[in-house]
Amino acid sequence: MTPEFLKALSGVFLQNLNAETPVTSKILAAVPNENHDYKPDPKSKTAIELAWHVASVDIWFLDCISGHSFKLPQHEMPADVKTGADIAAWFDKEIAAGVPKIAAMSGDELATPIDFYGMFNMPAVLYLQFMNNHSIHHRGQLSTYLRAMGGKCPSIYGGSADEPMGM
């Protein structure tokens, strides 16, 4: 894979990310303030913990990709972030700051292999797809919490019972 190819590939991955981001934000904002400590099983994260995980790990991935290093810790939830809507607002702001850093990376920077805790050692750009898959997986998990905790499930890839498609 040439740096030129990887630069073009980053455009595809960023286009996908830009399409998924508003959906992720809607799901985060849909976490109701009441019952945000809901979890379907004792081993599960609470809804607010899962919402924070979705948002913060996306930003962590962007930071690690642009910095060419996967390191801990991840972002701590700011003290003023208490609700799903707060998480969505934080996420929107941080995504808007992080995506341009990736878009500005050269083909050579995107081709640079990054070690992922000894499990993977892939070119930086490929972690964008990894990030997107992770986010979609946990966003789907969070969306299944919503009705059970008294919330409404927004549309994701089409209408939902709570947000039908407007055709």
Span between N and C termini? 42 Å
Tell me, rounded to a whole number, the average pLDDT.
94
Residues in helix, %? 55-70%
Strand order of the largest sheet: 1-2
Largest sheet: 2 strands, antiparallel
Number of strands: 2
The chain-level structural class is: mainly alpha
CATH topological fold name? Four Helix Bundle (Hemerythrin (Met), subunit A)
Task: Characterize the structure shown.
- It contains 5 helices and 2 strands.
- With 167 residues, the protein is mainly alpha-helical.
- The model has no long low-confidence stretch (mean pLDDT 94).
- The longest helix has 27 residues, at 3-29.
- The chain is 57% helix and 5% strand.
- It has helices spanning 3-29, 47-67, 84-103, 107-111, 126-148, and strands at residues 113-116, 120-123.
- A hairpin with a 3-residue loop joins strand 1 and strand 2.
- The protein has a single domain (3-148), classed as Up-down Bundle (Four Helix Bundle (Hemerythrin (Met), subunit A)).
- The protein is globular, with a radius of gyration of 17 Å.
- Strands 1-2 form a two-stranded antiparallel ribbon.
